[in-house]
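User: These chains co-purify. Model them together.
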Amino acid sequence: MTTNDERAIITILGRDKVGILAEVTAVLAKANINILDISQTILQEFFTMIMIIDLSPGKINFYELQQVLKEKGKDLSLEITVQRAEVFKFMHRI
Amino acid sequence: MLPTFSIDEILETIRMVKVEHLDIRTVTLGISLQDCITTSMEKTCQRIYDKVTRSAKRLNAEVERVVANYGIPVANKRIAVTPIAQIGQSISDSNSFIPIAQILDRAAKEIGIDFIGGFSSLVHKGFTKGDRILFNSLPEALSTTERVCASINVASSKTGINIDAISDLSKLIKEIAYLTANQDGFGCTKLVTFCNAPEDNPFMAGAFHGVGEPEFVINVGISGPGAVLAVLRKNPHVDLRELTRLIKNTAFKITRIGELVGKEVANRLNIPFGIVDLSLAPTNAQGDSVAEILEAIGLERCGCPGTTAALALLNDAVKKGGAMAASYVGGLSGAFIPVSEDNGMIRAVQDGSMTIEKLEALTAVCSVGLDMFAIPGDTPAETIAGIIADEAAIGVINNKTTAVRVIPVPNKKPGDMVEFGGLLGRAPIMSINRFSPKDMFKRGGHIPSPLQALGN
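Assistant: Joint model of the two components:
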């Protein structure tokens, strides 16, 4: 059973183009990280994609993933951030 | 099982951080220096330096780790120490605290933080030997150090107002401005005069580590005017009841973030978590303005009739939302209305809508007081004393914290602009009442404690 502690949220912000999802999911697949949910929308004129992931089966830790995706974001001219899920739970629930 | 929050909520958080400048304004480490007291200046300085640098060594790294985990920016890391007047007064081989200010400055640079607060003195009832030395050291200490912040408590609801201390301080403020004239009186931005100073305030320049505080403590100051402003702009036609609810909800979320970050940093440093300070602290970033929130409530310009009422609503709603969100609240807790750090406030002054008198009225219903405002450098000391005493009176009678951070800018006249840079922003020189309270201050003495003090 997984716990919320291993959950993280990936946010991808930038200009929409072909292959964003493929590029990012390839990184996750290689690291054996499971995607629990994906959603995309437009936020203040920016393409926004949100992924909820489970890090527990992963081959790399949270900080390594953060670094890898930051690099990937630079390649794709997108801003990719990874945040632990607790921040959202804490902010919106009491 | 998917998390218990929705995609919309994730988006809201992301938007608040990325678009609306939500951040934690400050994570402040409080350090007691009471075990650094010796009779020798050299030994005291060594102990202070060792204790501060040792206990804050991991502060920056741990805060950065928490920022990486949660993606919430922390604007500043700071340190507050026990009021130096109390730490230095046993020293028998020196009658100046300037070496202590210099050692605090060095410690701040060593740790890599921008401000260290606590070059402070509590004189609301009178002066001890240490208080006197600290007063005499203030001009040189603030003009020769970069990162040391000073605060003086001159009044309290329990004791009344120390008019003699205010008279002395107003002369020192002018001297500090003069000594830092080449930086437009910048030294005065690091000095706060308080009434009812809180012992757990995380915000500079007024932060110090009160004597009732534990050995170490982490206190957090939140930010977030941008997030509140965005919500109000999205809802231009709701009535005031609904508007209050929206502000409360936003304040709740902002405060939760502060609580999370504060607890996590404290946990990592293995020291107690103190309080979240529920303050809306503006910056010069686009839209991160308390004055613009008041204008979004429906004022043509901040400072016009109705501003006090709008601010009272805002301040109360922030507290109600924040109090639900945090286990322990403290510090100043209210909306800040500095002039130089708030673009909306600067515009209001430039357009002639905001005056010193209206600012003073606003401080009766919100946090702190007359903050970061510039006046002509040739303003008489008695006039500055009058401004401080008025502000103290509001605090004393209303059982609240008030403060003054005034910059009498040398060689400037009303309408000129001065740039302080960074978080301190820029300030238009405000014009000031030309009639003098000189004779009142010449009488000297102490305004007695008010009836409000007799609560026992």
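Chain A touches chain B at residues 2, 4, 7, 9, 11, 13, 36-37, 39, 41, 43-44, 48, 50, 52, 62-63, 66, 81-94 (CB under 8 Å).
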